[in-house]
Amino acid sequence: EEQLVESGGGLVQPGGSLRLSCEASGFRFNTYDIQWVRQVREKGLEWVATSGSSGDTHYQRSVRGRFSLFRESFDNSLFLQMNSLRAEDSAVYYCARAIYSSSGYYFDLWGRGTVVTVSS
Amino acid sequence: DIQMTQSPSSLPASLGDRVSLTCRASEAISNYLNWYQQQAGKAPRLLIHAASKLHSGVPSRFSASGSATDFTLVISSLQPEDFATYYCQQSYRIPWTFGPGTKVEV
User: Is A47 on the interface with B (CB under 8 A)?
Assistant: First the structure.
């Protein structure tokens, strides 16, 4: 079964750091772009960052310079290192697989999410 | 950034109703438009990609259309599991952006 599982969320003080993990199973992880998308409680979805299959990375303006992406191919995992965290970074963080085809670019497989709370 | 808007924000409906949800992009995005469903407490689920293509496993009561700036998602006959929030998302240009969602509720 194809699956994504996030972990690493928790409570952190403003200015602190967290590392989120997204572990993939059931598919060839290295051949796909993987996204992080977050959702503030009861609010909408916001794209955070993309780890491209060819090694490229892209970040939302509000997290650029604070968040960074790392892939560990040997264990099919993607990490989101989050530094200098702010209260507004508090959200459920989802990782999602992206498909790029003649039918466009879309997120077809999502994890269940991990909760990040930034508070003193 | 490309801004996505959706209307209505809330849509009261009943079982068996046909409902229509609208999404608009702030600039033309061709057919680079996806629709997701999010049931309460769950992760989003892909319904439609490329504006009108039904994702594998999605029931045929869902359909969608549109291009450039205006898009529509239609549910032909609401089922209990369809009461959820629906988001559109553009994949034309980074940063990928989502609409604020339409909540279909009883």
Answer: yes
- Cβ proximity of A59 and A67 under 8 Å: yes
SS3 A89: helix
Whether the ω angle into residue B8 lies within 30 degrees of 0, i.e. cis, is: yes
What pLDDT does A29 receive? 86
Closest partner CB to B49 (pick from A37, A106, A110) = A106
Cβ under 8 Å to A: B residues 27-86: 31-34, 36, 38, 42-46, 49-51, 53, 55
Is A107 close to B97, i.e. CB distance below 8 A? no
- The tens-digit pLDDT sequence of chain A (120 residues) is 999 999 999 999 999 999 999 999 999 888 999 999 999 987 899 999 999 998 899 999 999 999 999 988 777 899 999 999 999 999 999 999 999 887 789 999 999 999 999 999
Buried b (16+ CB within 10 A) or exposed e, A46-69: bbbbbbbeeeeebbbeebeeebbb
Contact B49 A60 (CB under 8 A): no
- DSSP state, residue B9: S
Query: Which tens digits make up the pLDDT trace of B21-78?
Result: 999 999 999 999 999 999 999 999 999 999 999 999 999 999 999 999 999 999 999 9
Residue-wise pLDDT for B6-15, tens only, equals: 999 999 999 9
> Residues of B with CB below 8 A from A113's CB?
43
